[in-house]
Specification:
Elements: E1 8-13, H1 23-40, E2 49-52, H2 57-71, H3 76-79, H4 84-101, H5 105-109, H6 124-133, H7 141-156, H8 158-169, E3 177-182, H9 184-194, E4 201-207, H10 214-217, E5 234-237, H11 250-253, E6 260-262, H12 276-279, H13 282-292
Helix pairs in contact: 1-13, 2-7, 2-8, 4-6, 4-7, 7-8, 8-9
């Protein structure tokens, strides 16, 4: 009697700002960092592992640019353009960044250009001051604008969300998988897993996730719930200096069973958010390896 064992599968879901990249090179960068993390643990990559990285970088930027063109918003940060909802999202996101990093109002005031201050989305000199204050953190003024724009577009524009999700969905089959989502990819992964109960996901692992940020949480589909296809739980790792991650996921989503938040990552990349600094962290690499067993 022959026993057929299902192949181990590792599905890697990247974040935003990956346009123009070669998908094979991008996957190689992820795998190289993961291998480095395994080496710290004196482990090696399983030989029978199939690694898949669904690439949507070019699609996302094209859809976002199409959406921007259609609504006439070219630069939310510098011009205050866009819908009032998008402006509020941008302001609240940056306010929370400043709050979590511990930047004082006096530091923001030093970058403020304008008259009497009324904090809020109606006072764009204040929003500009927030962006300038955050400029030295590795997520500069342009990066903050682009990040909030892309996350907002994914969360609120059905066409963008569906087409991105479809690419990720197409990589799943009836074989068991471990899923790793980074940054915006953690939101994409949650959406896809939450709506597909028939998947066989051993563990969902997120790194550098913005799913603890209030403005992001407000846009997520409710009710919040642990994807039923996830068998062994959700592990969320972040560097407390990563402004995109900022906060743990479980206190915000209050899932049952609970998300396991891990905040001891020391991400060595310049902005504390890069995927290499997460995948080569020994605790993260070991968690992925263990899930694959």
């Amino acid at each position: 009697m022959k026993i057929f064992l299902k192949m181990k599968r590792l599905i890697l879901i990247h974040g935003r700002s990956q346009q123009g990249k070669n998908p094979d090179v991008l996957k190689s960068e992820w795998v190289t960092a993961f291998k480095r993390g395994l080496e710290y643990c004196k482990l090696t990559l399983p030989e029978d592992l199939e690694i898949i990285l669904p690439y949507y970088g070019d699609l996302l930027i094209n859809l976002v640019n199409e959406w921007k063109s259609g609504k006439g918003s070219q630069d939310v940060i510098s011009r205050g353009a866009g819908s009032s909802d998008e402006l509020a999202f941008t302001f609240e996101f940056m306010e929370e960044m400043v709050e979590n990093v511990g930047i004082k109002n006096e530091e923001v005031l030093a970058n403020f250009e304008g008259a009497a201050i009324e904090r809020g989305i109606k006072n764009w000199p204040w929003v500009l001051a927030l962006a300038r204050t955050l400029d030295g953190t590795g997520l500069g003024e342009g990066s903050i604008s682009a990040f909030t724009r892309d996350v907002y577009a994914y969360l609120t524009v059905p066409k963008i969300q569906k087409q991105v999700n479809d690419i990720v969905f197409s990589t799943f089959n009836d074989e068991p998988a471990v899923v790793v989502g980074h940054s915006l990819g953690s939101i994409v992964g949650y959406d896809v897993l939450r709506s597909n109960a028939n998947f066989d996901v051993k563990e969902y692992i997120t790194v550098g996730s913005p799913m603890g940020i209030r403005s992001v949480i407000d846009k997520l589909i409710r009710p919040f719930e642990m994807p039923s296809c996830v068998k062994s739980g959700w592990f969320n790792a972040y560097d407390k200096k990563d402004m995109v991650a900022l906060r743990p996921v479980q206190p915000s989503l209050k899932l049952n069973p609970a998300v396991t938040d891990y905040d001891l990552v020391s991400n060595h990349t310049s902005n504390k958010h890069g995927i290499e600094g997460y995948l080569d962290d020994p605790a993260v690499a070991h968690r992925i390896y263990r899930a694959l067993q």
